[in-house]
Amino acid sequence: MTLVPRPVSFAAGEGTVEHGVVETLFVDGPPQGYRLTVSPGGTVIEASDEAGEFYAYQTIRQLIGPDAFRVASIDRTPTMLPVCTIEDYPRFPWRGCMIDVARHFVPKHDLLRYVDLLSVHKLNVLHLHLTDDQGWRFEVKRYPKLTSVGGWRSSSRYGDRRSGGRTGRPHGGFYTQDDLREIFEYARQRHVLVIPEIDVPGHSQAAIAAYPALGVHGGDVWTDWGVNERVLNTEESTVDFYRNVFDELIDVFPSEVIGIGGDEAPGHDGSFVRQIAQHLVRRGRRPYGWDEIVAAGPLPAGTIVASWRGISGGVTAARDGHDVVMCPEEFVYLDYRQSSREDEPIPVGTVTTVEDVYGWEPMPASLTGAEPGRVLGAQANLWTEHLDSPRRLDYAAFPRLAAFAEVVWSPREKDPGFLDRLAAHHLPRLDALGVEYRPLAGPLPWQTMPGVPGFPR
Amino acid sequence: MTLVPRPVSFAAGEGTVEHGVVETLFVDGPPQGYRLTVSPGGTVIEASDEAGEFYAYQTIRQLIGPDAFRVASIDRTPTMLPVCTIEDYPRFPWRGCMIDVARHFVPKHDLLRYVDLLSVHKLNVLHLHLTDDQGWRFEVKRYPKLTSVGGWRSSSRYGDRRSGGRTGRPHGGFYTQDDLREIFEYARQRHVLVIPEIDVPGHSQAAIAAYPALGVHGGDVWTDWGVNERVLNTEESTVDFYRNVFDELIDVFPSEVIGIGGDEAPGHDGSFVRQIAQHLVRRGRRPYGWDEIVAAGPLPAGTIVASWRGISGGVTAARDGHDVVMCPEEFVYLDYRQSSREDEPIPVGTVTTVEDVYGWEPMPASLTGAEPGRVLGAQANLWTEHLDSPRRLDYAAFPRLAAFAEVVWSPREKDPGFLDRLAAHHLPRLDALGVEYRPLAGPLPWQTMPGVPGFPR
Question: Fewer CB within 10 Å: N-end or C-end of chain B?
Answer without folding.
Answer: C
